[in-house]
Automatic annotation (TrEMBL):
<feature type="domain" description="Hypervirulence associated protein TUDOR">
    <location>
        <begin position="9"/>
        <end position="67"/>
    </location>
</feature>
<feature type="region of interest" description="Disordered">
    <location>
        <begin position="46"/>
        <end position="70"/>
    </location>
</feature>
<feature type="region of interest" description="Disordered">
    <location>
        <begin position="1"/>
        <end position="24"/>
    </location>
</feature>
<protein>
    <recommendedName>
        <fullName>Hypervirulence associated protein TUDOR domain-containing protein</fullName>
    </recommendedName>
</protein>
<dbReference type="Pfam" id="PF11160">
    <property type="entry name" value="Hva1_TUDOR"/>
</dbReference>
<dbReference type="InterPro" id="IPR021331">
    <property type="entry name" value="Hva1_TUDOR"/>
</dbReference>
């Protein structure tokens, strides 16, 4: 399977228990990172994306498989 890739500034959407959210990709995470108290186990082989929510402005890490271009 081809890995989804995004770049900073891309508008993306993802699903969650309350529906769907949209936001912008801030950057690709390729090393372990901490967002507030949450540990993100990102690596070069298993990258994640830091995304800022359009609605709330909150930032969270998402796996590429959870995101789609909006």
């Amino acid at each position: 399977m081809t890995e989804k890739t995004f770049k900073a500034g891309d508008t993306v959407a993802w699903d969650h228990s309350q529906g769907t959210s949209t936001g912008k990709v801030v950057r690709k995470l390729t090393s372990p990172t901490k967002i507030k108290t949450h540990k993100v186990a990102a690596s070069k082989d298993n990258p994640e994306y830091l995304v800022e929510s359009t609605r709330t402005g909150a930032r969270a890490a998402h796996k590429p498989s959870e995101l789609r271009k909006a």
